[in-house]
Amino acid sequence: MKIINEANEKFKDKQDEICDFLFGFLRKLNALEKEVFERGQELERKKEEIGIPKSQIAPGKTALFDEFEERLDELTEDYVTDKLFERGYSNSFGNPQKYSYIDGECTINFIMKTAKKAVVETHFSRGVDEKHKFVIKNVDGEWLVDEVYYGFEDEPDKWNSDDII
């Protein structure tokens, strides 16, 4: 991971605090997504073993999705603003995890122009060059993720609104 600090001079020292907050949160999301994905795979294996058709949902899969959403609610409540929380989730989990690039090859741009808001852009590749943008706000003395965007490097000025997971 390479971090490029583009903050105004008086905010350059906030990079570690804000990036540690964000990356710690993303790692927790990755761990939950990985756990639930593996449990979902096990349910699919069991479904196949007992001969349930592929077109049918594996027994326990609906409960797993419900648990995933409940655990996401618990996890995100300390990390995101009400605005982002109310967007909900895509309610999917996969492999690799959405933010698995955090512990691999990626470039980070840390941008901060005011004391109340920072932007962290992540640039990574998974066969396609992609990017995420996190808008992080200071709310009552706490850093919270307020907005999430995704995009592709071949469209440098285009960002699409996204869910946290």
Could you describe the largest sheet, including whether it forms a barrel? 6 strands, mixed
- How much helix is in the residues? 25-40%
Task: Kindly name the structural category.
Answer: alpha+beta
Q: Please report which band the strand proportion falls in: under 5%, 5-15%, 15-25%, 25-35%, 35-45% or over 45%.
A: 25-35%
DSSP summary, beta strand count: 6
Average pLDDT for all residues: 95
Q: List low-confidence stretches.
A: none
Order of adjacent strands in the largest pleated sheet: 1-2-3-4-5-6
Q: Using the CA coordinates, give the radius of gyration.
A: 18 Å
Q: What would the principal axes of the Cα set say about the shape?
A: elongated
Question: Helix count?
Answer: 3
Oligomer: single chain
Distance between the termini: 21 Å
Provide a descriptive summary of the structure in words:
The chain has 165 residues and is of the alpha+beta class. 35% of the residues lie in helices and 28% in strands. It is built from 3 helices and 6 strands, in the order E-H-H-H-E-E-E-E-E. Strands 1-2-3-4-5-6 form a 6-stranded mixed β-sheet. Helix 1 packs antiparallel against helix 2 (61-76). The protein is elongated. It starts with a strand and ends with a strand.
